[in-house]
Every structure is written in C-alpha cells, then in structure tokens.
Amino acid sequence: MKKVIQSIQDDVDLGYKNALEAYKILTEAEKQIKEAKANILEQAIDEYEKYGEKTIDYNGFKVSKTQSARYDYKHITQWADLKGQLTNVEELAKLAEKQGQTIILDSGELVDPAKKTYSKESLSFKAK
Q: Does 53 share its domain with 103?
C-alpha cells in the first residue's frame, strides 16, 4: 500500500501524472479504506478481545480498545436557554464582523465582531 501511494506521489512530482487526477484517486481510495475499516471493525474487536488483555502487542503495534462518551444536554432547560443566548450572541458577532464594526443593541449593550479565520484549502469531489 505504501509503495502504491508513494508511486502516485512520485508520478505527480515528476510530472507524469496530473495532480488533480492523483488527488481524486487518493480521495476515492481513502473513502474505500474508511468503508472497509467500518465493515470489519466488529470482527477486529472480537479478535482483539480473544487476547483478554487491555493492551496487546500485535505486529509491532500496541493495540487497545477505546470508547468515547458523549453527553446530551438538550433536555436540560437551563442548558437550552443558555445555548439559545449563546447562539444569539454568535449570530450578532458574525453580523458585526460582516459590517466591520461593533454593534450597539437597543439595550445599549455592545457586541464586538467575531474573529473570522479560514481553514486550509481543500478539494471536494462529488460524482455527477
């Protein structure tokens, strides 16, 4: 796998392959790999659990099972009220940024402009 990927990169670097085509190929491969990983995850976990240890050594890698917790606060009235207030402030701060100045609300409260940053450029491929 490593050699194939390096070969594609080398072909682009040497001008043998169009960079856009190479990026498309790698994007498609990445999607297929993610799908394949998702499809075999349960089987891989079953295999891992056969070892009966928290962390195992497997082909030069330390393997352990992880699981993250997520919390849902939407049912808590206080949280929903504060979240609504926060959303309102965020929208006003975005508006202030677009206008290029602090907004003064009817209440006299000031809303400073949000700081706008941009992510790194990327390409998106979608089938027609």
A: no
This prediction has a pTM of 0.69
DSSP character for 101? S
Angle between helices 2-13 and 19-49 (to 10 degrees): 170
Do 94 and 56 lie in a common domain?
Answer: no
DSSP letter, residue 70:
-
Q: Which residues contact 18 (CB under 8 A, 6 or more apart)?
A: 12
Element (H, E) at 104: strand 103-104
Yes or no: say if 112 and 100 are a contact pair by the CB < 8 Å rule.
no
The model's pLDDT over 42-75, given as tens digits with 9 standing for 90+, comes to: 999 999 999 999 999 999 999 999 999 999 999 9
Asked if 115 contacts 96 with a C-beta cutoff of 8 angstroms, the reply is no
Report if residue 56 sits inside a domain. yes
